[in-house]
Amino acid sequence: MSTGPAPHPEDASVLTEAERAAAARLPADRRADALAHRATVRRILGRVLEVPPGELEFGRRPCPGCADAGHGPPYVRHPDNTLWISISHTGGCGVLVVADHPVGVDVEHEARPWSPEAAAKALTPSERAHLDSQPTPQARARAFLTCWTRKEAALKAAGIGIVTDLAAVETHPAVPGPVTLHAPPPAPPTPWYTGPVPLPPPYLASLSRSTPTAHLRLHRYGG
Question: Is residue 216 one of the residues assigned to a domain?
């Protein structure tokens, strides 16, 4: 996990041309944060895999629905390894999960905008009822983000991302967690054990994994 990483003079040097170009396309106020996040991911994985961060090569596993490697879950292609990874980033905070089994993570800032229209498209009837029962706008926003991060984490773990119908995933937001989620087809009928990642405000994150007994160790990196 990195919170509020400061720009580092060598951030760009460990990234590929494609990664630097992707950051350059972002609004000016987001570029340094994006560069720092991506460079931090490389530095952490470089330590784990004992290679210089600039030598890492990333790829994607085949999508479980169509077998297309263009949009499946990410992995480290070089050096050879058996790890599963999941990466999420919002302004000022990034989360990297490394595991020996499929995982998915999503992090959001508590100030992320949402609307009743978005809730109507992304949430199940019971999830919308839970939002409506919240006493304040802040509580409703947090309930929405609980649903959203759980959905995205489970769908990333399943390898299909949010290209599917989000309203087909019930997240049980009234339950603090962990909860068991099921991703819709084309994901396999695997249960995903999903719960909160303990982050400081104003961030909220959920982690989804294929085994309920795995031990989670949280390391803070950077500012």
Answer: no
